[in-house]
Amino acid sequence: MSNTESSDSLITTDVETGSDEHAVAPDRTAVAARDLNVYYGDEQAIDDVSMEIPENRVTALIGPSGCGKSTFLRCINRMNDMIDICRVEGDVEFGGKNVYDADVDPVALRRKIGMVFQKPNPFPKSIRDNVAYGLKIQGFDGDVDARVKESLKGAALWDEVKDQLDSSGLELSGGQQQRLCIARAIAPDPEVILMDEPTSALDPVAASKIEDLIDDLAEEYTVIIVTHNMQQAARISDRTAVFLTGGRLVEYDDTTKIFEDPEEQRVEDYITGKFG
Amino acid sequence: MTESTESPDLQRQSGLTRLKEGTYGGLFAACAAVTLLTTVAIFATLLYDAVVFFSEVPVIEFLTSTSWSPNPRGGGQSFGIVPLVIGTITVTITAAFIALPVGTLTAIYLSEYATPNARSILKPLLEILAGIPTVVYGYFALVYITPALKATLFPEMSTFNALSAALMVGIMTIPMVSSISEDAMSAVPDDLRQAGYGLGATKFEVSTGIVVPASISGIASSYILAVSRAIGETMIVVVAMGAQARMPAVQEAFGVPFINPADVLLESGMTITVAMVQIANGDLTGGTIPYDSMFALGLTLFVVTLVMNVLSDIIAQRYREEY
Amino acid sequence: MATDTDTGTASAEGFGEVSRVRGIIFEYLSLGASVLGIFALAVLLVYVTIDAFDLTNASPEWLLTYFLTLVVPFLAFCLYSANDRELTRRAAGVLGGGLVAVAVVFTAIEAFVTQIPRLSWQLAYLFVVVFPLTGYVTYVGSSGRVGGVGFGLVGRLIGGTAIGLALAVLFLVFDARLWFLAYTLGIVPALASYAYGRFRERPGASTAAVPVGIVGVLVAVFLRPVIDTYPTTAFIYLWTLAIPIAAAGALVVGARGSRTEAIAAGGVPLALATVVGLFGGILGLGVGGPNALLVIAVAGVPTAVYLQRVFDAGDGVIGLGLPVLLVVGALVGALVVEAFGFPAPDPWIDGSFITEAPSRTPADAGLYPAIVGSVIIIAMVAVLSFLLGVGTSVFLEEYTANSGIVGALTRLLQINIANLAAIPSVVYGLLGLGLFANLLGLGYGTAVTVSLTLSLLILPITIISAQEAIRSVPDDLRRGSDAMGATRWQTTKNVVLPEAFPGILTGTILALGRAIGETAPLIMVGAATTVFSAPNSLFDKYSAMPMQIYAWAGFPQADFRYGVVAAGVITLLIILVGMNGTAILLRNRAERGT
Could you list the residue ranges that cross the membrane (chain C) (predicted)? Predict the structure, then answer.
């Protein structure tokens, strides 16, 4: 429903506030894709995508369902390795290193890249253990409790849960669970945070809290977010990449540009809700 | 190493971590290998002694001789599987007469008629039937069923007989038929039932005319499994059926030879499994023909049940593909 | 397949009516089929119970006494807990109406149809009305708070005692002194190292725990023949079992309650166990010795922890009176029976049946060595099949792919496991005989041979249920952990196994229930039909409960057939019910938790 009511004025104002905050250019590149092709069996999910994602910015990937944007996201931390039939060609560079090189350990890679999923998926453990999970598996030998506190604060959850760190993460509300997952993702201090439609399973109030949080996260981290919701992309991102059917990257530019004056007619049609 | 100064360190983890990962992976794989080794070991163990046995007793004689007397003291030794097969078939068929219809009706009731509440009570109760130790069933057959049958229906019944044992084997295998058949019936899409009701069929007609035919391969596979279970059943027959390997007398009526069912059912008999237990009770040290004959019997049993399981699996696979 | 349409003249509007007679007959036929097997089994169980407890000789007065002192108060307790007026009214109605109905029907059958052997109408009432009603009321009552507390307490007392006794039995064959050394030199240092690393933020110390433990155990094995002075068995139990159990109990309480409560929950049972165990003999308490110490500690600590929880919650505290109610009821019943001289039955299953060795005379026959054999065998099977089962199912569910050569291999393994599950148990017996007993020389009917054979026998069942438990862990959690950069083992250890553990445990216990009743493979590997003393080494010739039943069933004397074997069957079935009940409770609790 939100797609159709996209009145131009609303988007424009939001974009302005969004882009004012970090309007610094040019940036260092955090993640770059070069001639990336991904296949599920015989089906092509990503078709020859090349793009550079800047450091400490929020980059949104938008497009209709099945356009390959989530697949692209999962290429960055090689979560696609888990799918047997998935085949990746081309390069994805992270800090200048192709993550598909033979000497790269996907596990080591994922320790440098946090990920937040569509559905909140806290572990059935205490809040503290959830946040400390990444530290524990990476053999972190500093002050765990301090890091837990810092991460929960970073995820704007500390005030709500500071008295119940030992209760189960599953007892929290949906929005709190998602922020817990964000705290979990930032606790090991990754360089990049991938978010796969992090608000689509939440109510509007909880979603707006996450959006505010994403804005703050970009100060320290590179955030790459997949979203269905175009206003959300317009509100929170600095750069926007539009994927259309067949896994093709149609347009990739500053968010303001994409939403105000896209080059491609198809992108304009999509953004104004003519299809998708 | 030179690369890692500028780009993040994504190299493979340290030797210790990898060793740990590899160790666990290897341990789990070794556990899984145990299951494969078990099959190989069963086959090898059975084959090894069976081969020795068949070098002493020709296969043809084993399969066709009508006398089983492994004990060298009581007259000549002879290893003919025919009387054992007759005993096994007697028990299996009688048990099937109970388990198959009762199990099928139970499955229909559970899948089509029972309320969720009734189902949640009946299903665990039925599972109990399969969970009672078989030696207990054997004891029931010997101590309660046989005297009861003797007092009422068959006064001429002998203390050890095939009928009581088979009744208990039948009851024990009911849940095997009912649970697999019910799974198959529940897998029948509701569309088919709706279509039947839409044509004005009654519940009875939908159950017997639509659901049962649609799940027939699942039902058939449950039958085969139940029969294979009955063939391999040991303790019930050991306790209740006695251990007399005998050939039933062939009678003739109107020129047609037949065997009087009472002759096999109400008398003691011997199944393949009983024959194995009987030898095991006497001699286990190995190196004798009776010892080796156990393995020949075991191999026969193993092959028969394996073939039946594979068959049931193939049939069951078909119904899974249908929907 | 045409419908049996009626002529249609009956209905004025002309739709007609479709005959349902066949359908109704069929429905009742299939309902009858569903309960046929259950009914047959129930009748047989009634008879075996009557025989085991010699209920044919129970006078009506005796039955009435215990009915009033034991059954009625228990029913009242459950109904009080259920707190449902309607249920109470219906239960009373069933008890009263059932009494009349059973008496009338039973007398009618006896008068007009046939004599029913070994049953009186009072017994019929007991089995047809009282037991099912008690079962149902127990079920309803246990879901109430008061009932839940009562059954929770009774369950801990009985379960703790059973586990304590089982541990004591294990020490008949496992060397307590070696255990003492291994515990002192291996387990204690390892735990200390782990705790130090955990609380002082030194991961290195935690990682060192496992190697430290292994070295300690190896040193213990080496030192066992060298050292020749050891503390007494009671002291070993105290140091290696009672103290750690009490400490664990105190930790559990400490995590949610005050320090005083924690010390009380661990300390009181520990003190009781120490006094009774070390000084019981001297003080003339009638009980004492190491085994009493073990049982009191194992049953007492969980009970104390549970009491603290109940008092802390302050809800349903009155339910704690249930054990008192039952004990007092039994005592009063016994007093009344004694005072009035009511003819009492002489049950075959009693204390001496459990604690005596088999005998040629039925009255003296006991099951003790067979029970010991079963406990030791099942303990070893439990460890073996749990480890192998978890390992295999983790490999199949977490470490393999669905495609390629690995995928094909996985499918082969899977098919193989399904086929293993269907191989007759007697064939596994031949495997045990040929491979373990003869080829590897582990001995005929020894605990080692029998346990290995039974472990392989139930392995497929264990694996299949463990796989189901692992598969039910949501994939979200796995992906969440993977995305954190967890290795496969880390994901498995930290996320998958903790979630799947209750399911795996349930499946293993159910599979063990199968193992405990298996007889044919035991015969094939040469387990003894009868042994007259408890084994004291893993390489003795073992018997087991089903073997003993098999042996006795072959005895011609009626007292054996209808008495001793029935008692054996009931013992075996009670243990089975206990195990399966525990498994089902675990499953229900895990399902409620998620």
Answer: 28-50, 62-80, 92-113, 119-141, 153-174, 180-197, 204-223, 235-255, 262-283, 289-307, 319-342, 367-396, 417-436, 442-464, 562-586
